[in-house]
Amino acid sequence: MTGRRREIGIFGEKAAVKYLSGHGYAIIETNYRCKLGEIDIIAKEKETYVFIEVKTRSNGSYGRPAEAINFKKQSHLYKAAQMYIQSKRLFHYDFRFDAIEIIGSADRITEINHIKNIF
């Protein structure tokens, strides 16, 4: 990933954490990595663990950010979540997969869209 793209990604993840915290989510972990994939944010809403993919774009020229969460990305997220659940022994909790779309830049966010149960 190029430096500029990584900067935009980091900015988006920080904005998403701030958004989620402000909406009652407890942030459990960010940038969870394992051999099967990566999860941008793991949060908890009441008794539900939420695995969140953050997609950030500076504008909407290339379509909606969440459109980049294709089948392959979903598969990696799902497998990484399974690994996390097993490693933390969280078998008795509910889970879901969300996406957060961020459109804007460090000086101005034009849109934050939280999509619950994306797949």
Automatic annotation (TrEMBL):
Gene Ontology MF terms: nucleic acid binding
InterPro entries referenced in this protein's UniProt entry, alphabetically: Restrct_endonuc-II-like, tRNA_endonuc-like_dom_sf, UPF0102_YraN-like
Family statement drawn from the similarity comment of this UniProt entry: Belongs to the UPF0102 family.
PANTHER family assigned: UPF0102 PROTEIN YRAN
Protein name: UPF0102 protein AN619_14820
